[in-house]
Amino acid sequence: MALYMYKRAEHQKLYNKTTLKNLKNPDMQMMIMILLLCSVIITILFFTKGGKSNTPSSPPSLPLIGNLHQLGHHPHRSLCFLSHRYGPLMLLHFGSVPVLVVSSMEAAKEVLKTHDRVFASRPRSKIFQKFLYDGQDVAAAPYGEYWRQMKSVCVLHLLSNKMVRSFGNVREEEMSLMMEKIRKASSLPVNLSELLANLTNDVICRVALGRKYGCETDFKELMERLTRLLGVFSVGTYVPWLAWIDWIRGLDSQLEKLRNDVDEFLERVLQDHEDGDRGDRTDFVDVLLKIQREKSVGFDIDRVSIKAIILDVFVGGTDTSYTLMEWVMLGVFKAPKTNVVV
């Protein structure tokens, strides 16, 4: 028994010496500090209760990622489910980015009309900043003097009633071409999504760029890459300290290459308009180049702003338009009685 107690005491002394030696190790000290800091943060986030807040109701969130884990594979369905539980105004946190979810007509009116200036600026996104020339367009530019100037150019010179009516023949021609393709298909199956996508692309190309580019393989591939990357989730946008993940998975290099390819294509379009004889034909690029030359709007528009606005028109006028038409056609097919009305 005495021998056992002696050996146990010796083991305890050896253990204490080893523990003391490890605690003096700088790496061990750093690890302990990190663990203590994490414990304090978790304690504050989960167990500290503050006073009443004036913010909208919000589902419980996790540290660092916020409510990102609650989006699932179908974000629109997840947001709908959460809004039924937490109300028409719901505050979420996607990482470090606060997101206000509005899901009623009354609340949407307050946001889009009554308090529109408060919500006018778009949140900064790495993907949008790359593609849209660091916010020199209309869609991603922060609310301010530059945004008001670019908006006035679009509303008064590109989207006026006179300008829209002048392209009526373009829309009619492209619609007739699509209907002709459907007639030629006869009883064969038709890919309606592809037809509607080509229709909107061709109309926007002729209106904004002056001619159709849909038959060019490089242009199709460029638009496919653009549409795909616009919908990619960027980790660094929502969790900045994890931005290195975007670099590791190759997103940063893909964005950089696509930005250069899009800029090269738009530069070629502008150069063709400046070098060629346009005659009586007028498109959005012609209008913007004329404004730049004549300085007729009271402020300068540089070349980058022109390319940014044209890219806005193209991105905003193609994918959204044909997606809307596709859903309308789906609704018609699912409700045959409305077929007669349409």
From TrEMBL:
InterPro entries: Cyt_P450, Cyt_P450_E_grp-I, Cyt_P450_sf. Keywords: Iron, Membrane, Metal-binding, Transmembrane, Transmembrane helix. Pfam families: p450. The chain crosses the membrane at residues 30-48. Belongs to the cytochrome P450 family. This is Uncharacterized protein. It comes from Brassica rapa subsp. trilocularis. The lineage of its organism: Eukaryota, Viridiplantae, Streptophyta, Embryophyta, Tracheophyta.
